[in-house]
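Students often ask why we bother encoding 3D structure as a string. The short answer is that it lets us treat folding as translation between two languages. Here is a chain of 182 residues written in the first language.
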Amino acid sequence: MKTIQIKLVLVAFMLTTVFSYSQTKAIAAGSQYPPQVSKPLISIEGRLSIKGFTNGEMKQKTPVALFKAFKDGEYAINFNFKSKELKSDHIILFDMNTTVKHNGKIIAQTSRKGWPWLPGDMYVPVETYDFIPAVQKLSERGTPVVVPFKSGNYEVIIQMVTSEGQNVKGSISPASMQFTIN
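And here it is in the second language, the structure alphabet:
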């Protein structure tokens, strides 16, 4: 009985050693274990837009009023994209990038990474981008009161950029708002 147990232990040790060596050799040769299957390239096209807003002079005189105009539907951020290779119930991850300029100088630049979006037409809430807090902070150093915009020229640039790590080709043009506060 002892001889059988010793033989089983030796066989198990030999098999473990051979298996470990085969993994080490494959990894050392530059291959991956387990083998990786290449993902098909997904081509996308789409558009990001701000509906209802005309570049120029802003009607709203406070960041809070601008936020309310988006919430009430006076302005809307719309996004759509499509892909022939992507099924309608599959997602693409996008980074939501915001750049805010005041008199040509960047005052805020943020990115929210990895937001999932389905193909088709979608409404994008204004909270997705960080431009309202940026202009609020510029106006009154972030105090939680209703304050007027600081006078000057503003440009808000919003972007949807495909997140890294996906096999996606194509891009979405950014949308922008430009306005002057006197």
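Translate back mentally: The CA atoms of residues 107 and 138 lie 8 Å apart. Keep this in mind for the problem set.
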